[in-house]
Design a protein that fits this description.
This protein is mainly α. The chain is about 70% helix and about 0% strand. The radius of gyration is 21 Å and the shape is elongated.
Length: about 210
């Protein structure tokens, strides 16, 4: 396909595609003349991945570049690619109290989760617990355990859904579900809260 069709299929402007080509984020197409190149499905997939990371994931091009480097490195195992995607999505200036960090460490140990000791997600969770404490809400151990159980169930299902036999597709899906799965969970949680609230407190708008 020519670049115009690539643009149409991915909804990425031609000028942006050319920029990604210049920056090395997108591999060159097959040259068929002095000024023309032909592109294939691999370019479609890569552009959709870049677009998802930039537009929906909110990543800078520098962070996108680091994720794509992991995606393209054949010697990198899938677990490390997942870690790279996590790292790219987490801010650099995370802080958390020692108390909350210890609480998170204990939760991970109690559940037997295999998590990198230097994982920034540990600090992200601890910081979220601190934020609740600052506004006077203590997330008790019982509710935190419920959250952890739900997260474990979701994570197991996500990993099980990854395609087998196609490493590139598996890697891309891993990055996409990591970057874009959060809003899906957030929306489902809010919908479930609305339903639970309606059942507990009563509502004239409950479906018949």
């Amino acid at each position: 396909m020519w670049i115009a069709e690539l643009s149409r299929r991915t909804e990425v402007p031609v000028a942006t595609i050319k920029y990604y080509l210049r920056e090395g984020l997108l591999a060159p197409g097959e040259a068929v003349g002095a000024t023309r190149s032909r592109y294939d499905e691999s370019h479609v997939r890569r552009l959709r991945l870049i677009r998802a990371l930039v537009e929906s994931g909110g990543l800078s091009l520098a962070r996108v570049r680091s994720v794509l480097a992991e995606v393209d490195e054949e010697s990198t195992d899938l677990h490390e690619v997942l870690g790279a995607a996590h790292s790219a999505l987490i801010p650099d200036d995370l802080t958390a109290t020692v108390e909350s960090r210890l609480r998170v460490d204990e939760l991970i140990a109690d559940r037997g989760w295999l998590v990198y000791s230097e994982s920034q997600d540990r600090i992200l969770l601890a910081g979220a617990l601190d934020a609740l404490e600052k506004v006077g809400y203590h997330l008790d151990d019982e509710l935190l355990e419920i959250y952890a159980s739900a997260a474990a169930q979701v994570a197991e299902a996500e990993v099980a859904q990854l395609p087998a036999g196609d490493r590139q597709q598996t890697v891309e899906n891993t990055v996409l579900v990591t970057a874009l799965g959060g809003p899906v969970l957030l929306a489902l949680r809010r919908l479930a809260q609305q339903s639970a609230s309606a059942h507990r407190y009563g509502s004239a708008h409950l479906p018949s």
